Amino acid sequence: MSDDHRDIDPIRRTVLTGAAVTASAAALGITGVSAQTAQSGAAAPGRRMLGGVEVSALGLGVQNMHRTFHTIVPERDDMITLIRTAFDEGITFFDCAEVYGPFECERILGEALSDVRDEIQITTKFGFDIDPTTGAISGVISDPARIRQAVDGSLQRLGTDRVDLLYQHRVDPNVPIEDVAGTVSDLMDEGKVLHWGLSEMGPNTLRRAHELLPVTAVQNEYSMLYRGVEADILPLCQELGIGFVPFAPLGYGFMTGAIDMATGFAATDFRANTTRMDPENREGNLALVDLARDWAGRKGATPGQVALAWLLAQGPSVVPIPGTTQLSHLRDNMGATDVSFSEEELTELTGALDAIEVRGERAPPIVVEWNGTEAPDV
């Protein structure tokens, strides 16, 4: 372990109490909806609690608003309009990261929501080693100096003085989680960060992190297409009272029915490098879409709405963050909150999902290596 990993004051490796969060929020003059992020308890109708943060039942991921999976560069003004429409129609939870773009998606999000900052909850993430000139990613990094650099850069690009929820994007296998939590705690003391979370970490790291500094939310992939979190991470979050934020809740568009056996992917499309989309695997995996389509007919909904509603039914602290660059898809996603299942229906649907074997890996090999990592001991 380098000296950079040892320079955290041990006093900072303590639990940040709810009272300290409340004090930080008050010092920042947060009012309205944002004031609820410093409190715990029941959420208002149509909203959910992630730990002590009240958010809209669905969030909006902005990962592709600078460049889509199809390598298309959307019109910036169109993306700003989409984000504002999401807010106007009830979404207040917006998910971003420095690596998205890289950097540019934070600028788009900050510009779109600058005049409603106190009415929304912004998340961003640190943890990737990004070349500031080329944007190339050379691995993961979470040493204290890099965390501070990332947060300061994010605040500047977002045009804000605080991040409502800051995630470690991927665990750095060379940096103890104690050092990460200590640095984030310092940033909380400075008012730059209100809450924190982790993404795609190992279960032991999550437990250690939560003991050091209460974790508000975990963000992992979770959908009808990928349910691996049900084995360990989701039950652990429920045990510890940690919110769960599924990314790729529609399986990167798969569960909407937009992908079939005739669909091709650009070589640079993330999905082209996931074996679950290989033709020999995709054919069997499409049974999931057929199931969602059947339930859509029963519910007067769309397959994507059924897929999102099923996730929402997994617990009151589950908040999916589907991303899109199209207004029609945004509104379709938001319609999922109007779809509900009785206990018997949920059991029937989940049982049918259980009977379908999903084939293929969810991510390219390099990404798989970053998932489920356990931080080293101090």
Structural overview:
This is Aldo/keto reductase. Pfam families: Aldo_ket_red. It comes from Litoreibacter roseus. Keywords: Oxidoreductase. One of its GO terms (molecular function) is oxidoreductase activity. By secondary structure, this protein is an alpha/beta fold. The chain has a single domain, classed as TIM Barrel (Alpha-Beta Barrel). The chain has 12 helices and 11 strands. The strands form 3 sheets. The chain has a 7-stranded parallel sheet with strand order 3-4-5-8-9-10-11, with helices on one face. Strand 9, helix 6 and strand 10 form a beta-alpha-beta unit. The longest helix has 21 residues. It is globular. It starts with 17 loop residues before the first helix and ends in an 8-residue tail after the last helix. The N terminus is likely disordered.
Question: What's the structural blueprint in terms of helices and strands?
Answer:
Layout (H helix, E strand, L loop, with lengths): L17 H10 L19 E4 L2 E4 L3 E2 L14 H13 L4 E3 L8 H10 L7 E6 L1 E3 L6 E4 L3 H15 L6 E4 L8 H13 L6 E4 L3 H10 L4 E5 L11 H8 L2 E5 L31 H21 L3 H10 L14 H8 L8 H12 L10 H6 L8
Parallel strand pairs: 3-4, 4-5, 5-8, 8-9, 9-10, 10-11
Antiparallel strand pairs: 1-2, 6-7
Protein name: Aldo/keto reductase
GO molecular function, one term: oxidoreductase activity
Pfam families: Aldo_ket_red
